[in-house]
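Quick check before the chapter quiz. The format below is the same one you will see on the exam, so make sure you can read both the input and the output lines.
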Amino acid sequence: MAIYSVLTKKDLAKIADEFALGDLTAWSGVKTGSVNTHYRLETKRGRYFVRIDEVKSEIEVKQEIDLLLHIKKQGFPCVQPLKSKTGRFYLEHQGKCLTVSRYLDGEEVAVETMTAGQLETLGHALANLHLIGRNYKKGIDNRFGFNRILATYKDIRRQLPSHLKHIVRVLDDEFSYLENYLDNNLPKGIIHGDLFPDNVKFKGSRLVGVMDFEAACRGKLVFDLATAVNALCFVEQRYRIERFEALISGYESLRPLSLPEWDSFPNELRFSALRFTVTRIKDFYLKKTDENLGVDKDFKEFYDRLLILRREKSGGMEDILLAMATGYDYRKYQKSKPSK
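Here is the expected output.
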């Protein structure tokens, strides 16, 4: 949620009128997040979010809106796109799609202060999304699947300066490894793809809503969970086993992982870290940072995670691997023996 497209007071007043939001009383740009532009509006009728999609095509925006409408109807706590006075869920603004939703009350919780109860709640919510998504039959292309990320890496690799040659060697090796060892036969469905602390809001222990479905698509469910682990269970340069256990406990209370998913979990963690390393290199490191945008995400945050996951650097991975090795409860899947 950065500011790439500037909206004037006149623009925002027109948007408020187009969506029948009431008279504009206050507004501000939101300078956190990454790839899209967001503004916060206040009118006499309430508070709202305006989003300008900076990367998606019109078809992709329509797919995201359709997904949000579906999961909201199923009771999932997500933002609800609003209709304009002409009955449309988005408008065109300078060749880009603009959408409006109600502002979600609640607080974003810093990862360091997130409680075990909140982590368990997020695990439960992610499993709920995966179960709801089973009924959504429309396909949404995965822009961040392995082949897409590999293509992105090949495109940016030649742009990387020579002083990053050690990092390039590690990334080269990781792509070679994962190309051979990622399991593509795992359960798939609708995934959020970006369950980070700044994409959820709480009121105390209650989850108010999940935001930013920009990366949502059809993909491997365990990859979505792995991304949540990388985002929520890594604090002060270490994976924290107690956080991992809370998140997984919440998830498995609704959807227990299968043995193949447990076996693949370490590699999915690695691919998730690789994915964010590569996209942050592309979106931030290789672009000149404009301080007015208010966002500059360091790819080394996820590169460091990748080194730990590759067991080239200490950081709590041993505890996580042990938890994964023992996490599959065979008793839940054993067929009961017929009584004699």
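If your answer matched, good. The domain at 9-102 is CATH 3.30.200.20 (Phosphorylase Kinase; domain 1).
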